[in-house]
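User: Teach me something about this protein's shape.
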Amino acid sequence: MRCIFLFFIGLLSVHESLAQDTFFQLAERDTIELSADMLNGDDQIIYIQDRWRFQPGDDPEWSEPDYDDSDWSVTSTNLSEGDLAFVDWDGIGWFRIDMKVHENLREKPVALIIDRHLGASEIYINGEKVYELGNFSDSPESVVSFRKEAPVPIVFDSNEIQVFAVRFINPDYSITGQVMGYNGFRFHIGDWETYQSERYTYLSRNTGRNMLYIGLLMAFSLFHILLFAFNRSEFRNLYFSIFVGMLAILSYLLFRAELSFNTLDSLFFFRFLIIAEILVLAFAARFTHSIDKDRTPFYANILILFAVVVVVISWFNPGSYFWLIELSILLFVIEILRTLFMLFYKNRGGVWLLGVGVLVFILTLVLRLLVNFDLISGSVQILNMAGSGFLVISMSIYLSREFAVTQKKLKIKLDEVQELSKKSIEQERLSKEREIERRLLEAENNRKTRELEEARSLQLSMLPQKMPTLQDYEIAVFMETATEVGGDYYDYSIGNNGELVTAMGDATGHGMKAGIMVASAKSYFHSLVHESDILTMLKRMSAGIKNMNMRMMYMGLSIIQIDNNRVEMSSAGMPPILHFKQSNSSVQRITLKGLPLGTKVEYPYSTETLELEKGDMILLMSDGLIELFNSDREMLGIERVEELLRSSEGYSVNDLMNQLKQLIHRWVSGHHSEDDITVMLLKYKPE
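Assistant: First, the predicted structure itself:
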């Protein structure tokens, strides 16, 4: 990718050299040796030597492994201007290279790293087509160039010698050669898992940082355009706002260009980068001109007009007139530095702020060059952001200082006593109004807090104060609400013949509506629990909740009925029920699919029956447990709960519940849970 050099603008792209260091592993007949041992190191890359056998034109037989290519020329796949001086090239051709693949790389996925790729290609290994980059066609107008950034998975077969052939076409080579300096491609081999992980890490790390930086630039731009809107005579704010806005656009384009790697996407963004770069420098120069009140605007406006002309020319002819683009950039940089020097010479007040910004920016440039040459460690992107950000801030502070100085001069001309008197009266009035508003808000907050606390007390009073003590079962319950009034619910009932029915529910949302839903569920549960079977109870409860017409409010519910060691269970929109078997320390995940109560009255809910053995346990939970997030936004998941159950042999339900609480507290690490958490444990312990 051709680099954009921004000397005065804060965001500089990292110069990428078209030539890379390569490590040649040459055997007889230029065979590359590939082994997993070569993947050692931080980059996990095997650099493929850049000496391929090449033949212009197109013949499908050239993919065959036994084809005699000894009379082919040897060249770089880069197809730079220097390479094309020794080969014939009309946009299409074949490249071949032999690879001696060690057995530790055979029949396993490796990453074909696309270092750069202009056009479309077909990749053959031992005569078999394994991948197509873009949409290949021998008709140039039908070619769709490759634009992805992710590494490509390939698998070598069991043969030791692999013939790697690439059928390549670049219908835009007349443009790419002029603008980007090369026309071909560059491949490397890497560890598949490493490069998949690095790609997602790069996106997650850099996207947020770049978007934050661009957002800050846009905030500066908006702030100063508003200053200009309220004071139309202060054009410095206008020029500075356009300068920072274009810098934000340039930063975004650079970020997108980095994501596009070296495909034709780079050429697409390159056109916009040229425009943004020229306009950034043009309005930076216009801003420095506006500081000098003695300068007539005619000369500065001519520079803006010149920038517009260069933009139009570069858009339609980015390659042919690249010398004009470079010349205009150089002229703008020289003009900016010349103007700043003249302002220092005239001892213009406050210009030292701009000088400090420029010095810091130049320092970051030097540090960036040292990082690029591996003389020091650091992030080029952070240095770019720091340098350009400091420059923007120094300019903004300068404008703020100028505004303050102007205001100060105006205040001197006013009647100081009257002004101070008016301010004192106004301040007193505002203070009284704010005090009244503060007290009203405090009273309202106190009232709402009392109401929520009363609602919370009412909801908790509806839950069982303690679980029943049974001869053959140990029972423990844990609940933690996310807000003052939660949406989780648990209950139990013991029939006349000793059977136990327990319920656990989860209402959608939190707050007062969830509390009302819990109260309704409790009422229906105790009204229906011993009148019908659990399936009929679910349907009748769903009908009753649906008739309440509480829009977008539903109730998930799990019910289990226990008679001695026989357990019958059903569920409506709740997480799986876990069954721990002590005999083999296994955990069975029982998933009973069903819509939450209140959605569809006649939904065909299902049941499942278990025969418990001594030491077996049943765990019911709300979704707040398995969807609990840690500080890295990872969910706890059901697997960790199952693992805790599998290691619970010999634990009482209270001990196991304490272990579960400790797991929850370690996972959230002091953060507040976003959803209610309710867990019920039952352990069968017959005498």
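Now, about its shape. The longest helix spans residues 416-462. Residues 349-413 form one domain. If you'd like, I can walk through any region in more detail.
User: That's plenty for now, thanks!
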